Amino acid sequence: MKKNTLLFIGILFFSSLIFSCKKKKNDPASQYAKCPLLSVDGPTGNIRNYEWVGSKLIRVFSRDSIPTVVIFRYNNKNLAESMEITTEGTAEKYLVKFVYGANNIITKSNVSINGIQFMTNEFVYNENNKLSSIKTTVELFGRKVSGKTRLEYVNDNVSKVYSSINDELETIAFSGEKYDNKKQFFPEVYKTAALGFVGIANNFFSYFGENNMTAGKVYNDKGKIDQETQIEYLYNNSGLPIQSETVSTRGGKKSVEVCSYSFDCK
Questions:
Q1: Do residues 100 and 79 touch, judged by C-beta distance below 8 A?
Q2: Using CA atoms, how far apart are residues 220 and 133, in angstroms rounded to an integer?
Q3: Angle at 65 between CA 84 and CA 81, to 5 degrees
Q4: Rounded to an integer, what distance in angstroms lies between the CA atom of residue 208 and that of residue 130?
Q5: Which domain of life is it from (predicted)?
Q6: pTM of the entire structure?
C-alpha cells in the first residue's frame, strides 16, 4: 500500500527501522542457526547488534540513524508472536502481533502505536506456502483506507510487487532485479518481521525469497522509480558474507556504503 495516509505513517514510524545495511511455512530454525549474525559494522563504526537466546533472535539494537531497539517475543512453539520497536528520544512504541493459522503460517498481523491499533495485514499464500497477496486496512485520524498487494516470484525470489488503494488500478511497488545464489543470511525471523511492515514500506519484500538481493528498485505511488539499489557481497567459504558494498540512487543522488559482518559460528 502507498499514498498519503500510508506515506505519513511510513515517514513517522519507519524511516529509522531499515534492517538492511544500505542505510512457507514458518520454521524457527534457520540454515545458519549454528552461525547467528552478531553485528554489522559500517564506515563510521557499529551499525547493528544482535542478541540471541539459543536459536531465537530476541533483540536488535540499531544505530542506522536514530538509535532503535527491536524486541521479539516468542510463543511456546518458538514462533515469534510479537515485535516491539522503540526509538531514542520518542515515547512511541510500535507493536506488531502475529496471528498463526494451520501449519504455523502467519495469517494476520495487527499493528499498533502506544496501544492504539491502526493497521491490519491479512496474508494469502500460494500452493508452495509462499506469500502471494496481502490485504491491508489502515484506520488513522478518523479515516479508513484499504489496499491490496500482489507478489510475483522468479526462482523462489520476489521479482515484482504490485499494490492498489481501495478500488484503484494497481501500480508496481517493488522489483527484485537480481539475486545471488546464496541462502539468505539474515535471521529467519526477518521474514516474520517484514510481515509487520508490508502495509507501509516496500523495501522489505526481498526477504520473502530464498536468496540475497543484489539489485532492486522501489517505486513511488505513481509507479515511478523512487530508489535503486545495487549490492555486491563478498562471501567466505561457508557462504556467509564478510563484506558488502551498497550503491543507492535516489532523487538523482548516489550514495555508497561498505559494511562488514560478524557471525558466531559454533
A1: yes
A2: 19
A3: 15
A4: 8
A5: Bacteria
A6: 0.83
